[in-house]
Amino acid sequence: MVSKPRPSCWRLFALFILPFLHLCACLIIAFVDPNVGLEPIIVIDTPFSFLVMALGGLDSPHLLIWFGILGTLWWYLVARFVELEARKLILFLKARRR
Fold this sequence. Notes:
The protein is an all-alpha fold.
């Protein structure tokens, strides 16, 4: 039976740091003042924020919840994509050295 190699600690850190920071930013904004801090979250999530605003609209009382949940998922997927592409690049460079 072939076992899958375990990911190293730095890979797990890199994979979860962006979503964690996004979730923390949403929580801080929710506790401080949701009306003042919503604009930075919209800018940070720019490609994804268009979809969230289309779903909820800017006047939705649950807009910060949408941004908190879906934006964190967005940043997880971005980090996952970067990890997979970095893995492909490392494998390509190793194969090229041989």
